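Module 6 notes. Inverse folding takes a fixed backbone as the condition and produces residue identities as the prediction. Think of it as a translation problem where the source language is geometry and the target language is the twenty amino acids. Below is one complete input and output pair. Work through it position by position during the lab.
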């Protein structure tokens, strides 16, 4: 969960560690401003080299492939 304080170094470190381990992460961004919420999600995607899979309200689902520990199986195209 990301609160009013925004993205701190501790939050970014935890984000990186969790994406490395799980590949898929659900994040709740609790800010009152929709624009700020969008900026935080975009910043996480950019700094973490992650892709936004889905966003509903203040919840975002982000994915980053980990070639060493492939946990999420994607369909072949």
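Target side of the pair, the amino acids:
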């Amino acid at each position: 969960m990301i609160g009013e304080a925004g993205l701190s170094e501790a939050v970014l470190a935890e984000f990186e560690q969790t994406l490395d381990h799980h590949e898929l992460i659900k994040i709740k961004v609790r800010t009152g401003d929709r624009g700020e919420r969008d900026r935080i999600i975009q910043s996480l995607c950019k700094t973490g080299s992650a892709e936004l899979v889905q966003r509903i309200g203040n919840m975002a689902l982000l994915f980053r492939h980990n070639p060493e520990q492939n946990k999420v199986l994607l369909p072949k195209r």
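Reference fact for the lab report: The mean pLDDT is 85.
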